[in-house]
Structure formats: structure tokens, C-alpha cells
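Database export, one record per block. Field names are fixed; values are copied verbatim from the stored entry.
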Amino acid sequence: MPTPIPQPPGVPLLGNIFDVDPKNTWSSLKKLSEKYGEIFQIKVFGHTIVFVAGAALAEELCDEKRFRKYVGGPIVEIRYAVHDSLFTAYDHEDSWGVAHRIIAPKLTPQSVAERFDDMLSTTNELLEKWKGLGTSDEVSAIGDLNRLNLEATTLALFGKKLNCLTGPEHPMLKGMEDSTSEAIQRPNRPGFLNWLIFGSKFKKATATMRTYASELVEHRRNNPSDRKDLLAALINAEDPESGKSLTNSQVIDEIVTMPIGSSTAPGLVSTIIYLLLKNPHVITTARVELDRVIGDGELTYAHLSQLKYIEGIVREGLRLSFAAPGFNIEPIPKEGDKSPVLLAGGQYEIAHNQPMILVLAGVNRDPSVFEDPLAFKPERMVGEKYDQLPLGVKRYYGNGKRECIGKHYAWLWNMVVVSKLIKEVDFTIVDPSYELKQDGWFNLRPVDFYVKVKPRTNSKAPEL
């Protein structure tokens, strides 16, 4: 007999609507995972959603012979802005395969390595800005890293400088914030409210994002380039299987998804800054490695493979930040078969068409896998120790064919930025009593986290 899936008590008719804060959904799910463990469910207006927060069940749900990505809720809502893009396409839509075969070759490890110089130069621009700050200047870590990420993504993938590290915030950042917040909240509101009160906000945000993308396409067409970057592929390449190219609208769709997808990286790096400040011995160990490998010179791509402890910092940061906080799964339909689906060898039972969400705040901190799971210990994410971890706790970028197509790009950016920050600047937290608070929509990032930045004392940094 299957074990009932735990569920908060809820209230009549409305179910568990008050157990999840619509303005901070992922933090609510984190708390529920801490209370209920590896699996739980909620019911809202009669709809059941199952959440998985344990490593073993997460690994089971990543079996692509039994489960697939679920396109529903917020992902369906964001289709208003990006239609049938890589991120939002249903499995049956041919457009996914066409776009994937065009985009994937530009985001392999070898291809993103060619964008190293773009990542390095933009990171150096941020460091130059920070090193010029006064002793009383306070920095919003996530604010400046959001700017850096947009600057780097636009230059590396689309070949254009935005110069958005200083001055007014680029409209794309607010467009992404407003569109993703609406996509998360719209499924929990009556449809007439979405149309009557919130529709204009969603439309404006969508227009802002698509204008950003349109201007990049127009700039490339007005300024032909021999850059063989992602933008060139989106505009010019043909799918080798079908011979199809992307339409103008599809090019815009895919451009818009890239900054949205990469917006998890600033959440990760800003959380790593917090974790480093709470664990200064990690900074000391990291600097020994950085100074040994890089010395007085500039970081190069060849250095990165030698920075094993930095790799551990990034992985442990991915584990504890859960900056990409989860992903959606459903059973693969079997024609004519509506029998329940069994999980954990029959311990749990779900409906044949039950949507599920992996909550990485639970999965990544599963005490059955990690001793002292809340502690920041980069050494456990290095070499054989990392290799021996179960696959279920390594799903920072999703799973299988629908995992984040930009994971190699994100990894390289994270390594570059974290290496440079630790090597070249000292941070102090503005409020010594601050404890990490997070919120977000399609990502998680620190809230109200401010630091002061100055050049590293006795720095090995090169002159900028």
C-alpha cells in the first residue's frame, strides 16, 4: 500500500493557497521542503501539485524513459513573450528541434571558450568601477552583477556593447523582472484580474524585451560582422536536419530567452560573495590557489582547468544558492494507460498526468547525501568527492534534453567572475548582522545584501 504524500492542512475550498507566498514562491517551497522532507503536495483551487525535495526521488524523476519536462503554469504564461522558444516549447513542437540544432553548436564548451575574452573584459570593467569607489560607497551585489551579466551576455552572444555597468539601469533588466514576476503570479490569479489590472504590465515588459532583441538584430544587419557568434547563427543558420531557418519572430524569441536564462548566474555569484564573507578561511585557501596558478599576470582560459578549489566554490555555491530553484517534470504519457505512476519502488503513487516540481533547496541539501548540509564546504565538491555524489544532487541546470542549453556558457562566466573577484578585491558586509534572505521568480537572489568593495590588500592583480 503506497504511503500518502504529505500535505499541509490547508483550508476548505481554497486548499493550500495560504501556504505559498505568491510574491516569494520559492522561499515558501523551501520552508515546506524543510518541514515535509523528500516529497509533499499542495492543492490550490482543486489542482494538485507534487513537489520533490529529496535526492533519490530527484534522480528517479530525471529518468527520461519515464518522465519529461512539464510545460505548464509560469512557463506557459511566459510564452506570451517568447512563444515556442527553446525554453517554453512543448515536446511535440517541431520548433524546439529546429532551434536546438541551430543554437546548440554555438554553446558547446569549445564555442563558449571563444567568448572568454568578452567575459574577461566586461568583468574587468566592473572591477575597475568597484576599485574606484569611495570607502563609504555601498554596492548592491546583485544589482551590479545583474548589470555585468547583461553586459557580458549581450557582448559575448550577440556582439554588441551595451555599456550598462554605470548610469541608469538598462530597460531590459526591468523588462525581465516584470515579465518573470508576472509569469509566476498569473496562474494564481483569476483570469479577469490578469487581463484587467496586470495585463498592461505584462505587455509593456514583453515589448521592452523584444525591443532589446530587435535592436541587436538591426545593429548586426546594419554593421555586418565576421563574428561567428550565436546571433550570426540565429539570423543566418539553417537546421541541418530540416533545412529550416528561424523566422524573424523566432530570432527575437531566442535572443530574449538568453538573458532570462543567464539571470540565475548573478544570483549565484552574489550568494557566493555572502558565503565567502561568512567563511573567510575559504577566501584564504582560494587565494593561495589563484596566486600559485595565475601569479602577477592576468587570468587566461588555460588557467581555469587548474583552479580546482575555485571549481569547488562554484559548485558549492550552486548547491547552496539554488539560484535556478527548480524545474518541472511530468510522467511521459502512455497511450490508453491512465494507471497511477509509482515512485520510490511503490512507496508513493501519483496520477498518470501529475505535474511535479523539483525543489532544489531540498534536493541540494539532502542530509542523506551531505553531512552538515547547510555548511559551505567547497572541498567536498572537488575531484573524486564531487564525482562520487549521486546524480540527483547535480541537477543545477535541469535535466536531459531539456536542461539549460547555456550551461557551459554559465559555468565559464561563473568561473571567470568568481576567480577575478576573489583574486582582486576585498569585500566587507555593510550590515554585520545580515543573514541571507532570498527571493526571485525564475531565479533566486539575495535581498537587501550590500557590501563595500576595495582593491585587495597586497593584491596580485594586474593593472587594469
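Remark 1: The first helix runs from residue 25 to 36.
Remark 2: The first strand starts at residue 39 and ends at 44.
End of record.
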